[in-house]
Design brief:
The chain is of the alpha/beta class and 358 residues long. The chain has helices at 38-48, 67-80, 100-111, 126-143, 158-162, 164-168, 181-188, 226-239, 254-267, 277-286, 291-304, 320-339, 341-356; strands at residues 29-33, 53-57, 87-91, 117-120, 150-155, 174-179, 203-205, 219-221, 242-245, 271-274, 311-313, 316-318.
């Protein structure tokens, strides 16, 4: 067991000091692209201008004979572009694969100064993060990096869910955790072939009203992932890192995608994966607080002053607990407004209108 006083010491001679606090940067959508595909590489700069995070995918969806091309393609894209405020992430191959070591050796030494976060798939426990943590420190020292790379775990095995709290606190590098529903479903032996979202067979039914047990009984489809997302959010909040919903596989069903993303947002997630350009605007809409909610939150904060006591606003009692809730919304809005002038204008207009009605 490491002493707490050593937790923030570099794990290799010459490696940068670990971060003391994970910075919150807007990451409403983590947009995946295939770096082995020349057409996608060409589009990367224009896509980057529309998203908070651009992620070069090296793992699932990249065939075995394209792994090296994807890795080299990501290096090419990173070296050729400055993405400004848009973060550049990568998802490396799983730690039990024959490609992961070359992924880390190449990316950290070649473009470590361009990468923000390394996403690690199929994390099963703290031991996986410890391995990556030490290796990254060694490679950062070799590359002469001055800023440590952050690590993001994907929750996609039953072991990972069972150990999610220790994963979240395994290293100062831990930036966040994403739900990986497809692999998690397989690991749990769940009987669904969907990627995220609900299932019509997972339902509750209203009670019978007479002797006929089938007549007039309404059913309601339930969320297969509610427990896991809630547990993941708690683990992330406990350790000061960020939770994300993962992929929603039915690209055409934009309505259900928006519903699923909103459920995750309301539970505490800060963003979700976008697998297709159609999902970018959905994530941007859902993971940005509504202007009326921002205006209300700012009204409460203004009325509460130092955040103590209680006040009545529009017939509703507001106290220190609602003050804290409103601070969450207002601070998120401020962070997003600093990046998005359109949102900034909408938030300011709504707030001025709300304050004028006082």
């Amino acid at each position: 067991m490491r002493s707490p006083k050593d937790f923030f010491a570099p794990l290799a001679l010459g490696a940068p000091e670990p971060v003391r606090e994970i910075p919150f940067r807007p990451s409403r959508m983590i947009h995946f692209f295939d770096p082995s595909n020349e057409k996608m590489r060409t589009k990367a700069p224009s896509i980057a201008a529309k998203v908070d995070v651009l992620l070069g995918n090296l793992e699932d969806a990249i065939s075995a004979d394209n792994k090296e091309a994807a890795r080299n393609g990501l290096v090419e894209v990173a070296k050729a572009n400055d993405f400004g405020q848009t973060q550049l992430w990568t998802r490396i191959n799983s730690l039990d694969s024959p490609w992961v070591l070359d992924d880390l050796l190449t990316l950290v030494t070649e473009i470590g100064d361009k990468l923000d976060v390394i996403m690690v798939p199929k994390v099963e426990g703290a031991q996986d993060i410890h391995y990556v943590d030490r290796l990254l420190a060694q490679l950062e020292a070799r590359a002469g990096l001055t800023k440590p790379l952050l690590v993001h775990a994907i929750l996609e095995t039953a072991s990972g869910v069972a150990n999610v709290e220790e994963i979240a606190g395994a290293s100062p590098r831990m930036q966040g955790i994403s739900l990986g529903p497809a692999d998690l479903a397989a690991s749990r032996r769940m009987k669904t072939t969907r990627v995220g979202g609900g299932h019509p067979g997972y339902l509750v039914r209203t009670d019978p009203t007479g002797d006929d047990l089938s007549e007039g009984r309404t059913t309601y489809q339930q969320d297969l992932w509610h427990y896991t997302v809630a547990r993941m959010v708690d683990a992330c909040a406990m350790h000061g890192i960020l939770p994300y919903y993962g992929p929603f596989g039915d690209i055409k069903d934009v309505v259900a995608c928006e519903d699923q993303f909103r459920n995750a947002f309301l539970l505490g997630c800060v963003g979700a994966w976008s697998l297709h350009p159609a999902q970018i605007d959905i994530a941007k809409k859902v993971f940005s607080p509504a202007a009326e909610d921002v205006a209300w939150s700012r009204r409460v904060i203004t009325a509460m002053g130092d955040g103590t006591g209680a006040v009545m606003i529009d017939g509703k009692m507001q106290d220190d607990a609602t003050y804290k809730q409103c601070k969450v919304v207002a601070e998120l809005a401020d962070a997003l407004a600093a990046r998005d002038p359109e949102l900034a204008a909408a938030y300011d207009a709504a707030t001025k209108e709300a304050m004028a009605g006082e």
